[in-house]
Amino acid sequence: MTMTITSDQVERIVWNQHHDPFEVLGPHMVENDGQQAWIVRAYQPNADAVWVVLPEQRAEYPMQATHHPHFFECTIKGVELSNYQFRLQEGEHERFIYDPYAFRSPYLTDFDVHLFAEGNHHRIYEKMGAHLTEMNGVSGVYFAVWAPNARSASVLGDFNSWDGRKHQMRKLGGGIWDLFIPEIGVDARYKYEIKNQDGHIYEKSDPYGFQQEARPKTASIVTNLETYTWNDDDWMAQRRHTEPLTQPIAVYECHLGSWLHAASSEPALLPNGEPEPVVVVSELKPGARFLTYRELAAKLIPYVKDLGFTHIELLPIAEHPFDGSWGYQVVGHYACTSRYGTPQDFMYFVDQCHAQGIGVIVDWVPGHFPKDGHGLAFFDGTHLYEHADPRKGEHKEWGTLVFNYARNEVRNYLVANALFWFDKYHIDGIRVDAVASMLYLDYCREPGEWLVNQYGGRENIEAADFLRQMNHTVFSYFPGVLSIAEESTSWPMVSWPTYVGGLGFNLKWNMGWMHDMLDYFHMDPWFRQFHQNNLTFSIWYNHSENFMLALSHDEIVHGKSNMLGKIPGDEWQKFANLRCLYAYMYTHPGKKTLFMSMEFGQWNEWNVWSDLDWQVLQFEPHQKLKHFLGALNQLYRSEPALYTQDFGQDGFEWVDCSDNRHSVVSFIRRAKDSDEFVVTVCNFTPQPHSHYRVGVPQQGFYTELFNSDSREYGGSNMGNLGGKWTEEWAYHNQPYSIDLCLPPLGTLVLKIDREKTEKVLNAFNHQ
Questions:
Q1: Which reaction does it catalyse (predicted)?
Q2: How far apart are CA 379 and CA 148, in angstroms?
Q3: Angle (CA) 683 252 352, round 5°
Q4: 484 bridge partner residues
Q5: Which of 172, 495, 659, 759 fits a disulfide with 508 by CB distance 3.0 to 4.6 angstroms?
Q6: Mapped to the 3 state alphabet, what secondary structure does 198-235 carry?
Q7: What pairs with residue 318 in β-bridges?
């Protein structure tokens, strides 16, 4: 047989060193004795003999070993060569396979590669990663991975015994490697074998993989995200035409892995009734397991709806290897974690939230990623996703790496990832973690441990540009959603639109308000008179951003104590203080976020390895606090004055903020495009005040809409017998005033009853 290939070419394939194995393997048209013929080559490391099989012609051609005992080729003349197969003899076993190298057309187009290289391929996740597809009538999976500095790349999997020699990939433009592997499908486990220029091998999970094995395993899993049938068309249509900032937003922040667990002996059921594999975690209490997404849909959603929250915010549910990171050390940015089930299970959870009128916000982590060997770190043997210089590329405090936002492909990876969660999972918002760590080059770094920008400053200009690009793109595709920044500094215009120079978020956590409030409520009430500024300072800057008031998971861990433990006094005073704080929070301008367990007054800090302390709900104070929060959410959602003008000066007016001697504040909240308003009066001491006069803008009867000291919430039941009439006594620069009884550690919300007022005034005028 005449050899058609050199030993050097064969060696490059055998040692997996070829940048384009299609140049050697598969079918090649050649001239043979003056006639056109096909040369078919194959490298099958486990095969003793190989035949080319043409099923339509019912013909079979033996292949000969060439230069290497497992490298085979044969010449075929006079036939059309399409969709041929190999018959492999491997010891005593025989099997038939399609040749991956017969499928030459790349799934990615040149335009895809161009857009990706410039950082503007908004749906790159539909091309990169693993995708079920059909080529030449044969079904299989198309794989594509970005590894521009690799010497070679292969697909490893349970379909090839994790042997990187069997499915070697080719290098396209832009540093993308690809390969179509026939006859594999959903649930196939795979990784990429990346070999650097020195021959070192890295086994990597798929950066664009839609599913991963549950830790400690690290393989990606082929899945089809198009199999779920959504039932939320009405929700999605309404969202597109809704301005969220004029709507009530009360968020229940939740970590799915520690809200509640099930017994490991209790099987979870798949939709078809079959038992689902469960994830038992050794760090949990003995015999415990995670609830699945479907179980959480049945338990968590009704709980949140009953409490009156408008949204559930999930701590990161992208795949992460370490439970103790709470999800903030992500390795699979495109994979919802397998701890609780499949991607379709999570889709069901979101769908059920929408069916119950609840939005879903996901914590999104573009600020850093862990150093785990199967993740993004040193991906192709170089610092591909991260900066090479640790002064820009590493968060030493967290032990994580920082994305290189200056690289177009990295920005594309992250921007498309944000779009992905809205597109494929129908989420309603993202809360972007640790924005301050992205914006400042000296964040948590000592002098000499960071590099200045090109202008000599400490601002990370590339990160700011990335955030603008991400927000602009998200709102272009998905109007009506939320993009919330956890940003703790005075960086200007975080929640301003990008077209005026802002970062483009539509909400920002008000960290200053949170710190002021927790410091204030930590004080003995007698000392609060000297710190009235803690209560009032937030209004001075309230209109500079679109703020969300958040009491989050970060405030009840690491020795900070849970909410009740932060507050002085006996048990009654602790609960009264907490009710007063929540009521002030809900009447203060800004959207709201509370972390799970705060609604019923858990004493212990949040523990990621355990359930919430549900057992405390057997005690009346905790039951009544939970009831109080439900009533507070109902009040908030029913009064447009409390949410329609959170960010404009017309929505808030102090009545009196200077009564520090009594630690009392009073203010008015006004509705947008309406003359509706409510009056809030807060007494932050355990000393009740009778005949406390408060100015009001209109004459009439003011109904006591809400009293945090009500007996039904566990209070002393001091109040105003349903409401008070005004007196023609100008006070607090208002034309009228009302004489109130202020309960201890209590918040009152009052609203004029126009029907009753008009009826009585008309009767009086007729006399």
A1: Transfers a segment of a (1->4)-alpha-D-glucan chain to a primary hydroxy group in a similar glucan chain
A2: 10
A3: 145
A4: 431, 507
A5: 495
A6: CCCEEEECCCCCCCECCCCCCCEECCCCCCCCCCCHHH
A7: 336
CA distance 462 to 517: 34
Q: Which amino acid is at 69?
A: P
Judged by DSSP in three states, 483 sits in strand
In 3D, which of 483, 484, 482, 536 has the Cα closest to residue 512?
536
Q: Look-up: residue for tokens 């800090």?
A: 605
Q: In angstroms, rounded to a whole number, what is the distance separating the alpha carbons of residues 434 and 315?
A: 13
**CA–CA dist 125, 84 (Å, integer):** 31
Output the CA torsion 605→610→613→614 (10° steps).
150
Quick: pLDDT tens for 145-191.
999 999 999 999 999 999 999 999 999 989 999 999 999 999 999 99
Residue 1 has pLDDT above 50, yes or no: no
Average pLDDT, stretch 429-447? 95
Residues with active-site annotation: 433, 486
Distance CA 406, CA 521 (A): 43
**Considering only 44-48, 360-364, 755-759, which range has the smallest mean pLDDT?**
755-759
| Residues 681, 688 contacting (CB under 8 angstroms) | no
* Region 310-333 average pLDDT: 96
Tens of pLDDT, residues 474-494? 999 999 999 999 999 999 999
Burial of 423 (0-12, 13-18, 19+ CB in 10 A): middle
Question: Are 363 and 315 a contacting pair, CB within 8 Å?
Answer: yes
Predicted pLDDT at 5: 85
pTM: 0.94
State how far the Cα of 466 lies from the Cα of 489, in Å rounded to an integer.
18
Alpha carbon 549 to chain centroid distance?
Answer: 19
Span 700-751, pLDDT tens digits: 999 999 999 999 999 999 999 999 999 999 999 999 999 999 999 999 999 9
At residue 214 the predicted structure's pLDDT band, cuts being 50, 70 and 90, is: very high
DSSP label at residue 323? G
The per-residue pLDDT of the chain, averaged, comes to: 94
How large is the average pLDDT for residues 18-42?
89
Give the residue among 671, 698, 670, 695 at the shortest CA–CA distance from 681.
Answer: 695
HEC string of 377-390 equals: CCCCCCCCCECCCH
DSSP assignment of 503-537: ---SEEE-HHHHHHHHHHHHS-GGGGGG-THHHHH
Other CB atoms within 10 Å distance of the CB of residue 229: 8
Residue (of 657, 670, 735) closest to 698 by Cα position: 735
Mean pLDDT for 217-227 is: 97
Pairing assessment for the beta strands 250-254 and 311-314 based on DSSP bridges: parallel
CB 157 within 8 Å of CB 189: yes
Per the CB < 8 A criterion, the answer to whether 68 and 8 are in contact is no
- CB-CB contact of 358 with 300 (8 Å): no
Distance of alpha carbon 212 from alpha carbon 223, whole angstroms: 10
The secondary element (H helix, E strand) that includes residue 36 is strand 35-43
Cβ(274)–Cβ(356) below 8 Å: no
Model pLDDT, residue 266:
67
Tell me how long the chain is. 767
